[in-house]
Amino acid sequence: MSIKLTFHGAAGTVTGSAYLLQTSRATVLVDFGMFQGFAHQDDLNHMPAGLDVGKLNAVVLTHAHLDHTGRLPLLAKHGYRGPIYCTEPTIPLTALILRDSAHLQAMDLERSNRKRQRAGEVPAEPLYTAEQVEQVLQLFKAVPYDVPTEVAPGIRARWVEAGHMLGSASLQLCVQEDGHTKTIVFSGDVGPKGAPILKDAVGFEKADVVVMESTYGDRNHKPLQETVAEFEAIVKKAVDHKSKILVPVFAVGRTQLLLYLLAQMFRHRVVPKFPIFLDSPMAIEATKIYWEHLDLFDAEFKALNRERPLTEDLNTVKPTPTAQDSMALNTLPGPCLIMAGSGMCNGGRILHHLKENLWRPEACVLIVGYQGDGSLGRRLVDGEKTVSIFGEKIAVKADVHTLNGFSAHAGQSELLQWFGHLAPVRPRVFLTHGEARGREPLAKLIQEKFSLRCELPMLGNSVSL
Questions:
Q1: Of residues 139 and 40, more confidently modeled
Q2: Given its phi and psi angles, is residue 242 left (phi above 0), alpha (psi -120 to 50 degrees) or beta?
Q3: What's the confidence (pLDDT) of residue 372?
Q4: Do residues 367 and 394 both lie within one domain?
């Protein structure tokens, strides 16, 4: 029986998810994400040497986030014209994310190529272009949740709810090879139980092999209700002090969660309504896509929305689509709340707002998402007193708050619970999508609790299943 699995990403890091599955009859790629949030990320964002696009039958996606889809246009660039299978909401969300990625690359390249030109150097090429994004988007095919679908000769895939973002899924691949069937499960990113808006993750009970994320394998998040209470207290205090609240957000997922919580605060009169600025063209579009898929939301959201549309509570939310709209926020007095990308503060409009406000003691910064090693967001979380933004030294005098309980990832005990349904069949386990500090403690716990030894592959490793 010849089944080979190669780890072309998220092996020893949290980003760049990409797993190549090869049988004697077919080759399938599971996710093809971009590496993000560390110094040498660009060196890894290329077509891996061992990935022959000519032999690729299909691509299957767990969800739309850039660290799972960001290298897909490279496939089009190298001539791939086969299908890319994913859940229906994943298609418009991936389109939004990839178009934004190509746009940011073009902007960055324009700046750096001007410097190269002045230095007499050869101009650099982008990783991919907007045209290649459009080419790859033509290949997407929507699949329903929980319906097995043949994606390649001898390979059937089933997507189930992962509770991580709109359209997110865990994948079960049933692989026929030499008259035998091997069941391979890819967790994708598993969401926390009871998170607002989304339904909870659904697990599996059968697998010969499990490829499982370990982002927060070393710890549990603070209980959500505690985090919500903390969020409300910070917002209330900031509004009382007429402060400007800056929130670096991931446009897809975290933005919609915060809008939901603010809507509830306004509805229950926790604070009087105040201006909220959605300072991210991408977040504006993502929110529209979320609103078009209310059927996928959890029962609590649906009940609240039936009572009175949440959009009525959010009538002080103002989108700021243009750069001019964004710049006008610099002179705006508080209280107000500005949500701007990017989530790790490694680019985007949030950098301008931080440059203008970090040195002001009356300003408030709310970190509500994962911050990669080396990112500006991580330096703020770690309490650095000065940071560099656009080459300028900025003192950090603003109130910086970190709210870990909003994570869209399951914490340690939730990951163990998700895996617990599979443990009795004693699968072979690979822990990926985690730094060493996440996956090593999780591997130890799985060994202690279930007597199963986990494998911790590194980038480029191949294994025979």
A1: 139
A2: left
A3: 76
A4: yes
Q: Residue 410: name the closest of 194, 211, 190, 117 by CA.
A: 190
Whole-angstrom Cα distance, residue 410 to residue 417? Answer: 10
- Number of domains, the chain: 2
Q: State phi, psi for 85 to the nearest 5 degrees.
A: -95, 140
- 281 with 374, same domain: the answer is yes
- pLDDT band, very low/low/confident/very high, at 339 (cuts 50, 70, 90): very high
pLDDT for residue 1 is more than 60: no
pTM for the structure as a whole: 0.90
Do 429 and 386 share a domain, yes or no? no
Q: Report the candidate in 206, 195, 156, 199 with the shortest Cα–Cα distance to residue 176.
A: 156
End-to-end CA distance of the chain: 8
Residues 215 and 244 in one domain: no
Q: Could you give the angle at the alpha carbon of 428 between the alpha carbons of 424 and 430, nearest 5°? A: 120
Phi (first) and psi of residue 330, to 5 degrees: -60, -35
- Token representation of residue 261: 């919580």
Q: Which residues of 99-121 are buried (b: 16+ CB within 10 A; e: fewer)?
A: bbbbebbeeebeeebeeeeeeee
Residue 114: per-residue pLDDT: 92
Per-residue pLDDT tens digits for 245-264: 999 998 888 899 999 999 99
* Helices and strands (H and E) in the chain: how many: 15, 22
Q: Which domain CATH number covers 289?
A: 3.40.50.10890
pLDDT tens per residue across span 412-454: 999 999 999 999 999 999 999 999 999 999 999 999 999 999 9
Query: Are residue 376 and residue 438 in the same domain, yes or no?
Result: no
Instruction: Report how far residue 153's alpha carbon sits from residue 57's, in angstroms, rounded to the nearest whole number.
Output: 8
Residues 432, 401 share a domain? no
In which domain, by residue range, is 399 found? 224-406
Is the distance from CB of 207 to CB of 418 less than 8 angstroms? no
User: How confident is the model over 350-368, as a mean pLDDT?
Assistant: 95
Note whether 400 and 413 are same-domain residues. Answer: no
